[in-house]
Amino acid sequence: MAYLNDTTQEQTRARSERSVAVLSATLAILFGLFLVWGVGFASPMTIHNAAHDSRHSFAFPCH
Amino acid sequence: MLRRLFLTALAAGAIAGVLITAVQSVTTAPIIRHAELYESGELPAHAGLAEPSSRSLLAGLAEVLLPEALAHGTEAHDGSAADDHGGAWAPADGLERTAYSLLANLLLGVGFALLISAGFVLHGREVTPLGGVLWGAAGFVVVTLAPGLGLPPEVPGSFAADLQDRQLWWAAAALCAAAGLGLLAFGRGWPAKALGVVVAALPHAVGAPQPETLGGAVPPELAGHFAAASIVVSAIFWSLLGWLSSVFYRRFD
């Protein structure tokens, strides 16, 4: 019985660790995409001109 | 976990951003400035090159540090990125322009490193330096090779289709390549892998938006050299970023 309880606790802990990992990775992906969008895609001219050479060098669509 | 992801991305993105700015400033950036002389009409379209397009790395470095001393022709050439953009603010040529490229590359480095680190976490296996380089290679395929097949790297002044159409297609090509590569690498069984190939090929089956006519003021040789340089620089960036991400991900455990 004690063994079974240990196994269940182990599984619960693994599951909660996995959901923390998935949540963290999702937040990292969203923020990462936001940064890439800002540098590579945002349309205001000031941002375009500041990031101009990077956009061309990384082959983001430009002009 | 979140702290580990962001620390990894900050460290890897900062180092890769600085190094790739140095590489760009002696490879792609001199070609961009050269192409802008044709774009702005300072050099006549399709005339013979005033200078050969393959410059030495040292010449590129000197241009960043001493822009006035090496200015083309006699006219001052400043704020060229804004030449055809309604006079909006643009960084002045030389160190200021390189500094803004550095800022852009730092942000891109951190952004892409966040995506790579998220890949480490979702994959859930031990992260090795070689594995990091492979994740970087995947980033290169998704962000450079896949969109580049339809929309090759362009110098300023090339004819191109509507910007929003190209941005949309570019994003779709990258997203489909990421999904397709994911299915190929992690999908179980042949149907999943075959679906990966189909998904990755989909945007290319539709086709990238193209201009009505090809052309532009920039000599094709210069444009071709730029496309090659851009892909090479991108390969350096992604392998560096993947490797650095794995190193810092292990360190910030």
Automatic annotation (TrEMBL), chain A:
Keywords: Membrane, Transmembrane, Transmembrane helix
InterPro entries xref list: CbtB_put
Regions that span the bilayer: 20-39
Pfam families: CbtB (PF09489)
Stated name of the protein: Cobalt transporter subunit CbtB
Provenance organism: Tistlia consotensis USBA 355
From TrEMBL, chain B:
InterPro entries (UniProt xref): CbtA_put (IPR012666)
Protein name in UniProt: Cobalt transporter subunit CbtA
Top-level taxon: Bacteria
Annotated transmembrane regions: 99-122, 129-148, 168-187, 194-210, 222-244
Sorted UniProt keywords: Membrane, Transmembrane, Transmembrane helix
Pfam families: CbtA (PF09490)
Species in which this protein is naturally found: Tistlia consotensis USBA 355
